[in-house]
Design brief:
The protein has seven helices and two strands; from the N terminus they run ββααααααα. By secondary structure, the chain is mainly α.
Length: 140
């Protein structure tokens, strides 16, 4: 689904730009990780990023630059790849770390609260598989 946002470049001129699903996904992942860590928008943004900007990003209503995403990722303790790659269920389970598992659980809870049960289940299942595999590896 393609959505559009309007930017107001000058008081008399505005443009519409498409916002694809990647930007919506990035915003949702930022919100889930932020809420899991119980950070406010102001705490996440610090001096560099405004609350209003982060709110727009989390709602998928604006794009986030790579520089801004790097700031967010650093403050959340997550790699940039967490926000832009395919869901971790598609990745090698032995490469997952605790931050990915924690973020996946947080995102699963957010999806569940929104009624997106299938996606919530995918993330929760992935997190459970990782934890089980970590336990099996520790026993070996």
């Amino acid at each position: 689904m393609l959505r559009w946002i309007t930017t107001h470049e000058t008081p008399s001129h505005s443009r519409q730009y498409p916002v694809d699903d990647l930007h919506v996904t990035v915003g949702r992942r930022i919100r889930a990780a932020r809420q899991e860590r119980r950070l406010s928008l102001a705490e996440l943004g610090g001096e560099e990023l405004s609350r209003s900007f982060l709110s727009l990003v989390e709602r998928g209503q604006t794009r986030i630059s790579l520089r801004a995403l790097a700031i967010v990722a650093h403050r959340l303790g997550l790699p940039l790849s967490y926000f832009v790659e395919e869901p971790p269920v598609l990745r090698n389970l032995t490469e997952a770390n605790l931050d990915h598992v924690t973020a996946a659980v947080a995102y699963s809870r957010l999806l569940y609260s929104r009624g997106e049960l299938e996606q919530a289940f995918r993330y929760a299942l992935w997190a459970a598989e990782v934890r089980i595999n970590q336990g099996v590896s520790a026993v070996r």
